[in-house]
Structure formats: C-alpha cells, structure tokens
Amino acid sequence: MAETNQMEKIVSFCKRRGFIFPTSEIYGGLANSYSYGPYGVELKNNIKKMWWKKFVQKRPDIVGMDGPILLNSKLWEASGHTTGFNDAMVDCKKCQKRFRADHLVKELTGEDMEGELERMTQVLQTGLKCPECGKSDWTEVKKMSQMFSTEMNGVEGLIYLRPETAGAIFSDYKNIVDSMRVKIPFGVAQIGKAFRNEIVARNFIFRIREFEQMEIEYFIEPEAEWEVMFEKWLDEQEEFALSIGAKKEDLKRYEHPKAKLSHYSRKTVDTEYNFPFGFGELFGLAHRGDFDLSQHSKFSGQKLDYFDQTNNKRYTPHVLEPTVGLDRLILTAICAGYTEEKLENGEERTVLKFPNAVAPIKIAVFPLMKNKPELVEKARGIFENLSEQWMCEFDDNGNVGKRYRRQDEIGTPYCVTVDFESLEDGAVTVRDRDTMRQERIQIAELESYFGNKLN
Ligand code: ATP
C-alpha cells in the first residue's frame, strides 16, 4: 500500500508541478498516454543530452543517426516483427478486464511463463482469481501483435510505426559503413520514438504505447572476446543510471535464462530499477550474433558485411545491443530525486534532489519585491545574462520563502535573490537547494561561479 501511495504521490506531483500530464485530458484522456509539460520536456532533453554526450560525443567509436518512424515494411518482415512481435493476452469473462497473460500469471503464481501460452491457460484455469473482480472465468491465452499499422499514399499495403528504433540502424548500416570510414568495433546510436500496442499500459510512464528509446548497435568481430565488452556495457549502463541520480542499491541485473533466449541471442541481461511498484526493466543488453545483418541481407538481396583491411578478411559483424527507454529513465530520475524532508524548524518541504545536469531549471532569479523597479530591473538583467548559458527561471511572485519552496519542488539547484543591498554592494544572495545555505556573490562573478558549479 505504501508503494502505491508513493506512486500516486509522484503521478499527482508530476501533474501539479508541470512535469507530466495525462494527454488529451479535456476529451477524457487517451488510454494511459501522457504529455511532457514545460519542466518535463527540459528534463527529457537533459537526459537525452547526457546520454548523447556519454555515448556519442565522447566516444570516437560511436556515431549517431536519426531514422524515420515509418520504414519499408519489408524491414519488419526481415526482423521477424510482422509475425513474431506478440504478447500473450487473456480476458476475464466475468468483468471483461484484459490482462497481459505472462504478467498476470507471474503476479498470481510467482512463476515466469512468458511464451508458454498453453501452460498459462491451464494454470489460470486451475481456479486462479481475477485481481479485478475476484472471479475465476478466463478465456484462452492468445497472442496479440504489438505492431501499430497505418497506410501511406503511394505505398501498397500496410506500413508500421516502428516498434523499436534499431531497425533503421540495420537498414542504413551500409550507408554508414560507406560514408563514415568506421572501423570495427564501432557503434551506431539513435534516439527516437517507438510504438507498441501494449495489451495493458500501466505504471504511469513505465509502460506506455508511444515512448522513446535510446539504442546503440555495437558491431564487433565475430571472433572478438565479446564477454569482456558485454560486461563493460553493463557497467556503462549502470554508470549512466547513477549519473541521473539512481542509487546503486536500487539497481539490479537480471540475466535471461538460456532456455528463454531467442535462438540467435547468446546472452541478454536487463538492468532493473527499484520503482515504487517494484523492480522493472530499465536497460536491456543483448548479444544478437549476426542475426539482424544476415536477415536484412537475405531479405534485401544486398551485401551487409564488413571488410577488415588490417586482417584482410570479410565477415558479417556480430552485434551487441545496449538499449534503454527514455521515459523509464525519466521516471527513475523523478523517483530517485523525490524527497520529503522535515526541517529543523519543523517545516516540511518536498525537494527533487536532481543531479545538476538533470535539473530542468538550473538557476532561478528573484527580485526581493516585485513592486520595486530597481530590484526587478537588476534581476531581469541577471536573468538575461545567465540564461544565455543555462535554463533559468525569473520569478517575482509571492514571498521569497515560497519561491524557494517552489524551486526546491522542481529541483532547481540554485536561486539568486536581488535585494536592496545588491543596489549598494553589487552582490546577490545565492541559495543552495540541498544545504539551503546562502552566500553573497558579486553579480560580476556569477557567471564563473555557476560555470564551476554547473558545467
Ligand atoms: P518489457 O519486458 O518491459 O516489455 P522489453 O524487453 O520488451 O520491455 P525492449 O524491447 O528490450 O523492451 O525495449 C528496450 C527498452 O525500451 C526497454 O529496456 C525499456 O526501457 C523500453 N520500453 C520497452 N517497452 C516500453 C514501453 N511500453 N513503455 C516505455 N518504455 C518501454
């Protein structure tokens, strides 16, 4: 119950404070879909930037790309998605509630029966009760495609909204190899929307039908010592989770049992985060062999291999695939940062203890009073100057104590207040979110002060 309360608190906090809203709300909403509000979009952009910096900007062996959502349908035939990207569903005949069968069976029995449709049907029919209505009257467990489809002028047949971003990386593999002089091992990274017609969307933005992924296909030599690289990728994924504020003790790894792996995969390990509703997959890492390039080569009739000049040999590279859901990272950052504190004076405050790089607003600038033009003018000047480099907010509403609380709630690391003394001594009060300590800093030094703190 405590966990549910924590999640409910976070969902309503996100709405109240402009992070994440239920979408199309004025029309009654749309099946667990959300919009990112003004602070949510900053948070999202910051996490994207941090990921791109770590995995593209600072990596000489990784390049980026940005493919479209709509791709040639043959691609999804080759990857096996058109026929094989299914989830198992089951309906309660009494209350008509629909469930994802493997999740339901796991919840009710503790056993992972993913992919075992008949067994799940049998187990449910031993009298397991519907968590919604308490009755036991189930349909058979059936497969349901997760692919969203649409039509495009000038194109025959259905086309699909990509269910993962990886597809375009494989179909553009040849263009990247031909244009970029990449040398194995190398990676291609992409951030973008993916669409899955999930049977049940739930747990806020943890499981939604339109979400964003940040994926890398890392191409390696077939004979390479992949186990070492695999471990390194796991560590890098963990490092990234820590950099957005997750605590190490809230992360754990889950290795998929060999028997459940796809025939082409040598190893798959998920990194899970301890959300208020329990551990859930945040990152995935899979060794996919040469399955993807071989399939796309077979279906397209094009050679998708690599010529290793140093060793004078040609081969189809194998691939390691580190992937993560951006929305799940955002939820992680919010859950990890969300803190309710009792202060020494007995007051309570809610603080989002975001790392600086994650915080949507870096600095809030206040004139002590809004009806004193000299203060307002000076504060505006400071805002204009600092906002050249950082996302800042100008606020002249209500008393300063309340303004501090508001910034604490949205996770702003620093507040700058212009008071009457500032007009005399050219200094302002800078207040730190976590320690709540205040210090006087010369206006002329603010840029270098924040440069040291924030950059
Ligand atoms: P799950 O088992 O939770 O359905 P998955 O194993 O199908 O996830 P992948 O295909 O590995 O997920 O997708 C890569 C990443 O995309 C996941 O690690 C997760 O962070 C994210 N992701 C997958 N499905 C969703 C979704 N419906 N909503 C939000 N993020 C998602």
User: Could you say what the CATH architecture of the largest domain is?
Assistant: 2-Layer Sandwich
Distinct ligands, ions and cofactors found in the model: adenosine-5'-triphosphate
- Rg, please? 26 Å
Please report the distance between the alpha carbons of the first and last residues: 41 Å
- For this structure, the CATH topology of the largest domain is BirA Bifunctional Protein, domain 2
- What's the count of strands? 23
Q: CATH class of the largest domain, please? A: Alpha Beta
Average residue pLDDT: 96
Low-confidence stretches: none
- The spatial strand order of the largest sheet comes to 3-9-10-16-13-12-11
What best-fitting shape do the alpha-carbon axes yield?
Answer: globular
What do we call the CATH homologous superfamily of the largest domain?
Bira Bifunctional Protein, Domain 2
Number of domains: 3
Secondary-structure class: alpha+beta
Tell me the helix content.
25-40%
Helical segment count = 15
Report strand %.
Answer: 25-35%
Biggest sheet layout: 7 strands, mixed
Please provide a written account of the structure:
With 455 residues, this protein is α+β, with helices and mostly antiparallel strands. The chain has 15 helices and 23 strands. The protein has helices spanning 2-16, 38-57, 73-79, 81-84, 101-109, 117-124, 166-171, 173-180, 226-243, 291-300, 326-337, 373-386, 400-410, 420-425, 446-454, and strands spanning 20-22, 34-36, 62-65, 86-91, 98-100, 142-145, 148-150, 159-161, 186-195, 210-220, 251-255, 267-275, 278-287, 306-308, 313-315, 318-325, 338-342, 348-352, 363-367, 392-394, 414-418, 427-432, 438-442. Strands 3-9-10-16-13-12-11 form a seven-stranded mixed β-sheet, with helices on both faces. A hairpin with a 4-residue loop joins strand 14 and strand 15. It binds adenosine-5'-triphosphate. Adenosine-5'-triphosphate (ATP) binds next to strand 10, strand 13, strand 16 and helix 11. Adenosine-5'-triphosphate binds next to strand 10, strand 13, strand 16 and helix 11.
